């Protein structure tokens, strides 16, 4: 089993925590946009209270370990590795509880190039534990607003993990999905499951709009989030999101493998 000390060292060496690639400027811009209720950063969450920039900065300092000094406006942002470790423990505990009761689970990512392997390994383990890993709405088209305009993307599943693909980009079974923050994919998936009178997920695992969109609808949701993703942490603070793990969500995919082993061991899902 990977020790906590070894994982802490890996988090810092891989820049998953400590000084991360996400800049302070990018994080502060996200906080300003969230305070203005910009849908690009609320990710499907409808906050229950007004969140000003200073409130978000205090929240992110508490949940991630970023500086709470509003005068600190440049340079790399920082994530406290102890908060990442605590988040991973809580994340694993939720997976374990779902596995014990053999709950239906949905996995989805807006970072397929980076995080597909992490989620796919968890999906494999949950399936082996007797959980139904749900895959509704395979191939369904979804109109998503991007910085390039509205794109009609298609929903796909790879090893049980949902993602969207842009027009003209197709590689069934590969990780060529699109980077998206949109909550529309999870809404389409849940709607399709309900229409088919199939099983709805009791747990949604993922990032970005997958977590916020599910949590907003009252479904237990857990996920990963960077310092420029305040919506997930607001959702956690307001009780809509069960667990958020603070870490850099865009490092090379191989760097997440030790986290996979740690979570599976903590959740008693290792084979």
Verbal overview:
It is a single chain. The protein is of the alpha/beta class. 42% of the residues lie in helices and 18% in strands. The chain has 10 helices and 9 strands. The protein has helices spanning 4-13, 24-35, 39-42, 53-63, 81-100, 112-128, 184-195, 208-216, 230-237, 257-266; strands spanning 18-23, 76-79, 105-108, 141-146, 149-158, 161-165, 203-207, 220-225, 243-246. A 7-stranded mixed sheet has the order 4-5-6-3-7-8-9. A hairpin with a 2-residue loop joins β5 and β6 (161-165). It is globular and about 50 Å long. The model has no long low-confidence stretch (mean pLDDT 94).
Keywords for this entry:
single chain, 271 residues, alpha/beta, 7-stranded mixed sheet, two-stranded antiparallel sheet
Strand content: 15-25%
In helices, the fraction of residues equals 40-55%
Tell me the distance between the termini: 12 Å
Largest sheet: 7 strands, mixed
What's the total helix number? 10
Low-confidence stretches: none
Could you tell me the number of beta strands? 9
Q: Tell me, briefly, the overall form.
A: globular
Cα-atom Rg, whole angstroms? Answer: 17 Å
The chain-level mean pLDDT equals 94
The helix-strand sequence is HEHHHEHEHEEEHEHEHEH
Q: Based on helices, strands and strand pairing, what is the structural class?
A: alpha/beta
Give the spatial strand order of the biggest sheet.
4-5-6-3-7-8-9
């Amino acid at each position: 089993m990977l020790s906590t000390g070894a994982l802490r060292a890996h988090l810092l060496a891989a820049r998953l925590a400590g000084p991360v690639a996400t800049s302070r400027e990018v994080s502060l811009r996200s906080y300003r946009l969230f305070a203005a209720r910009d849908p690009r950063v609320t990710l499907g969450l409808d906050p229950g209270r007004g969140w000003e920039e200073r409130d978000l900065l205090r929240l992110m300092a508490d949940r991630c370990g970023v500086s709470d000094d509003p005068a600190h406006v440049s340079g790399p942002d920082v994530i406290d590795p102890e908060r990442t470790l605590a988040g991973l423990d809580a994340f694993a505990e939720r997976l374990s509880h779902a596995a014990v009761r053999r709950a239906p689970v949905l996995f989805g990512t807006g970072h397929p190039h980076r995080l597909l392997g992490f989620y796919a390994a968890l999906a494999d383990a949950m399936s082996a534990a007797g959980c139904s890993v749900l895959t509704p709405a395979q191939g369904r088209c979804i109109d998503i607003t991007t910085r390039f305009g509205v794109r009609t993307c298609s929903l796909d599943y790879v090893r049980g993990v949902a993602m969207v693909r842009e027009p003209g980009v197709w590689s069934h079974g590969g990780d060529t999905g699109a980077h998206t923050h949109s909550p529309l994919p999870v809404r389409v998936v849940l709607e399709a499951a309900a229409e088919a009178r199939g099983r709805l997920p009791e747990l949604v695992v993922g990032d970005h709009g997958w977590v916020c969109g599910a949590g907003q609808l009252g479904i237990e949701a857990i996920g990963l989030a960077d310092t420029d993703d305040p919506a997930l942490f607001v959702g956690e603070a307001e009780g809509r999101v069960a667990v958020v793990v603070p870490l850099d969500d865009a490092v090379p995919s191989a760097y997440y493998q030790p986290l996979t082993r740690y979570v599976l061991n903590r959740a008693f899902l290792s084979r």
